[in-house]
Specification:
About 45% of the residues lie in helices and about 10% in strands. The protein has about 400 residues and is α/β, with parallel strands linked by helices. It has one domain: Alpha-Beta Barrel (TIM Barrel), CATH 3.20.20. Strands 4-11-10-9-8-7-6-5 form an 8-stranded parallel β-sheet. The mean pLDDT is about 95.
Length: about 400
């Protein structure tokens, strides 16, 4: 086995092993991919303060996220089609997360179903919900998550309308993949992936096929999905879903302080500052830049988590020191999964934990709850000063000057 010392090592293995359409699905953003790139590069703008002669014995990365004890403040983010990155991918990722003591979040658009994952792990996992037009299906989906004893519901708010993802459109992304000539030529070079996929029965969207009315095969599924993301999702509907769920509710996809305040008003237990990994509104701020004004707006009234752009334990540390209580990794764990299955996810988590622990020590902190802005060197005006259409008089005066 190759020596893995950083997430980039797993990414190189992942790229060689997984079919192009699924690699592109993971490693791309919408439109020009500006926000996708900024999510990672903006972390590089933040520097760290080294501190010395501090007793570093007895360090710990253990804390809580959404009321749950975690080995480190890192959750596996909901990623659609994870079971196409590796056979039975969601099951393997959930088992790895349970073994390493961090939360796993199952996507509505997963290949393995809620019941599949619940049947292979005793650890409670989180379920991510997309709001669909079919309200009967929505209610039954929430009931299935309850029956599986999911410990939190992660409601995604930023996918009412699908962002234009050029690579997915050009590749004809589907699950299972459509056997076009370019796809078959690429699959022929990924024989190990193919053999593993042939050995599993899980190759479609397990939470939808056989559960949604009229969806019994892949062809009917794609028609259904294209019509189902609900553009009418509003705060009243969020309140109704919270009541329907009845447990901890995490709202994901917040980038604006006003939306963060609205999330508080509907009773969110945690708010995830996220731009969907740069796959929705291209040109939006990176999540780490969006975090400070949201923190100012929310204070300690809700637990803030950060998603999008995290590729290392140092990124985790920077997000925590900037004010987040928890973080999510998506691509970083998918690289490990696609490269080496469950073992790869475990390695990715070990790498991130070691980087977090080492960096925390070199910054003079013994516990993740002690991380604060004092250990960071943040560029002046990191969050940016932008002319806002919400202040037309100021904008007009600025233009006049």
């Amino acid at each position: 086995m190759p020596v893995i010392t950083e997430i980039a090592d797993l990414k190189r293995l992942y790229r060689r092993r997984v079919p192009r359409m699924f690699y592109d699905y993971c490693e791309s953003g919408s439109w020009s991919e500006q926000t996708f790139r900024d999510n990672s590069s903006d972390f590089d703008l933040i520097r760290l303060r080294q501190r010395v002669a501090v007793d570093m014995e007895g360090r710990t990365t253990e804390t809580t996220m959404a009321g749950q004890t975690v080995a480190m403040p890192v959750a596996l983010a909901p990623v659609g089609l994870t079971g196409m990155q590796h056979a039975d991918g969601e099951i393997l990722a959930a088992k790895a997360a349970a073994k390493k003591g961090v939360p796993f979040t199952l996507s509505t658009m997963s290949i393995c179903s809620i019941e599949d994952v619940a049947g292979y792990t005793d650890a409670p996992f989180w379920f991510q919900l997309y709001v669909m037009r079919d309200e009967d299906y929505l209610r039954r989906l929430i009931d299935r998550a309850k029956a599986a004893k999911c410990s939190a519901l992660v409601l995604t708010l930023d996918l009412q309308i699908l962002g234009q993802r050029h690579r997915d459109l050009k590749n004809g992304l589907s699950a299972p993949p459509k056997l076009t000539i370019p796809t078959m030529l690429n699959l022929a070079t990924k024989w190990r992936w193919g053999l593993e996929m042939l050995a599993t029965k899980r190759r479609g969207f397990g939470n939808i096929v056989g559960h949604a009315k009229g969806v019994d095969d892949p062809s009917s599924l794609m028609t259904w999905v294209a019509q189902q993301f609900d553009p009418r999702l509003d705060w009243e509907k969020v309140k109704a879903i919270k009541k329907m769920w009845g447990g901890p509710l995490i709202l994901k996809g917040i980038l604006d302080p006003e939306d963060a305040k609205a999330a508080l008003s509907v009773g969110a237990d945690a708010i995830v500052v996220s731009n969907h990994g740069g796959r929705q509104l291209d040109g939006a701020l990176s999540s780490i830049r969006a975090l400070p004004p949201i923190l100012d707006a929310v204070g300690d009234k809700a637990e803030l988590h950060l998603d999008s752009g995290i590729r290392s334990g140092q990124d985790v540390l920077k997000a925590l020191a900037m004010g987040a209580r928890g973080t999510y990794i998506g691509r970083a764990f998918v690289y490990g999964l696609g490269a080496m299955g469950q073992q790869g996810v475990e390695i990715a988590l070990d790498v991130i934990r070691k980087e977090l622990d080492t960096t925390m020590a070199l910054c003079g902190r013994k516990h993740v709850t002690e991380l604060d802005r004092d250990i960071l060197l943040v560029p002046e005006d990191f969050a940016g000063r932008w002319l806002s259409s919400a202040k037309p008089a100021a904008a007009k005066a600025a233009r006049a000057r």
